[in-house]
Amino acid sequence: MLIGAPVMEHNKHSSNALPHLTLVRTGSSTFQSPSEDGNFTDDVVALVQKEIGGDLKSLKKVSGLLEQLTLENKQLEEQVLTVSSSVPLRVSAALSTAEESRVKLESLLEKERLLSNTLQQHLQGAQVWADSIGQVLAQLDTLERHMKYLQCLARIEELSDFEEVLTQFHWPFISPPTQTLSPPANVQELNSQLELLVSQLLSLQTSDDLISEKRETPSRPGQSQTPPLSLPIQIMLLPLSKRFRYHFTGNRQTNNLSKPEWFLTQVLIWMGNSSNFMDEKIQPILDRAGAKVNVELCRGLLTLAQEKLAQDTPLLLYDDALFCHLVDEVLQFEKELRSTHSYPRAYPGVLHILLEETVFQKWLSVERKMAVEKVDAMLSAEGAWSSQYKDITDVDELKAPDCAETFMTLLLVITERYRALPCPRAQLSFLALQKELVDDFRIRLTQVMKEESRQPLSPRYCAILNAANYISTVLSDWGDNVFFLQLQQAAVSVGEEILGPLGATETGRLASLEGSLFEALLALLERLRGDMLGRLLDAVMRDVKEKAQPYCKDRWISLPSQSDQATMSLSSSACPMMLCLRDHLLQLQQMLCLPLFQMFWQGLAERLNSFIYGDLILYNHFNEGGAAQLQYDMTRNLFPLFGHYCKRPENFFKHVKEACIILTLKVGPALLLCDMLKQSEEEEGILNHQQPSPESALNELGVYKLAPSDVQILLNLRSAWLNQS
């Protein structure tokens, strides 16, 4: 026990001394201070356990361990004192260095700011140059690609002997081929080479690269898309294209704006010269190769004409004479292209050049201006109101005066000019112009007619009437023409934009083909014709009535009976009226066309029928002789005047004819008829199936037009001799 006590005390002392250690490094072991680690007791226990362990004999190591730790503690204190004295100097040096660095950094930042501003200004100034250089570089890149493409084409041309083969066939045919040109000796070999080369070129064209490079040509009004020309045709066109541009561009005398027919005719000549070679040599190869092409060379040559027209036409818009000449030549070219060279309608020709809005409006303006000038000239001409066919009866059925015939010929020429246009809107625009011209001509006719209205029986007045009828007849025929029927259908869909608003009724009539495009004009012309014909009839009837006054006032009630006369003859008082009628009928038959004269004599007969019935028959009383004389005058003289124009003229004088029947009835039948009519009047409203109706009784006598009341009046007109009986 006594031995153990000092040990425990020593341990206690050691335990009290250990907490003052801050850091003890023994070998590779490091001990943390209590300030850094709250588990200091555990660390001491672990150190004692490690250095001494549970063996009491190891306690002798405690003193050595204490000395070692004390020594290390002293060394550490010395190091701390040394460091604490040198730290302020080092910190001061570090702060000084940092300040210098800060000043240098601010200086560098200021320089960087100035340099950045300068650089920004320089970049802004150089941007324009950079953009310009970029464009130049892009152009250079494009040129480089084009050069490579041209080099590729040149290489392809070097590899082909296609043009050489064409040369041996005497291509191109500048002049018409003649029989004197002997075929080449190796014609079979050349034919084989030609077919091989054409086939290869067609195969080359259908490659994906070429297809992707195809450019769509902008469509113009009335122009349909067409496939690109095949490569063989493009190569064949090269010499012709060079010749065309040589003669018709630049300062050459052949490049004349006033002579468009020169280059248009040249294109047609080349088409004709090359047609046999194309049909016999090239087209069969294209067909065997499965290429769906036709009239290829014509399409290529036509392109030259199209480009030339597109270039020249705007230059002629301010010269009416040259512009009209150009239009005439273009229309003639199109006609020959379609007819002589059988160019398909599906492919565009050159008419679309005239359908450009500015050009087309100029065309319409010039057509209107020239038409009005021609109308002025034709109406003021010396023979405007006479017919050039007046001495030829078979030809001059309509008796149209020269002014009317020339005017309709003018309209027909305009129709032929726009008939081939591929655009319905353009055609309807010309139709609107034609309708405008017709209405203007109608107004002019009306003005001239009013000047001549004081002399309606003059040749000029009748010529005006013939003119109105002629125009109306021609327009009616046009309304049934296939071309105008097609325009009528187009007018239903797009006509309101050009012809003005169409009512629902008019649109329906046009769509069902019941009406026509000229319906409104025909109505106005019909009104003019009816008005003029009415004035003409009024004039004739005034003359006839004047001549008929003695005849109307004749003593019909006291004329001798038929039995008292040896032979019946025309009443002397009727001669002036009959002569007047005959003269007017013969005169107007010569001056009026047949349809108008038929309308005239029928209208005259109708008016005469009313006049004689009302002013002569109903105004007088008749004895037997007077009734017989009236019937003779009518049936043997008046009716035959009109018998030259129809088979049964009496049908146009029904009142007069039936009145004569009633007036010339024998006494017995007349009395029976009078009694029956009176009885029928008294029994009106009472049904009597046994008694025949008055109408049936009158029908048996040949009276159909007159009513029973009219017959009673007529019977009363012969009451004088009825009473005597």
Automatic annotation (TrEMBL):
Tree of life domain: Eukaryota
GO CC term (a single one): Dsl1/NZR complex
Coiled-coil ranges (or none): 59-86
Gene3D superfamilies xref list: Dsl1p vesicle tethering complex, Tip20p subunit, domain D
Keyword Coiled coil: yes
Keywords from the UniProt entry: Coiled coil
One of the protein's GO biological processes: endoplasmic reticulum to Golgi vesicle-mediated transport
PANTHER family linked to this entry: RAD50-INTERACTING PROTEIN 1, RAD50-INTERACTING PROTEIN 1 RINT-1
Similarity comment: family membership: Belongs to the RINT1 family.
Protein's recorded name: RAD50-interacting protein 1
Protein source organism: Cyprinus carpio
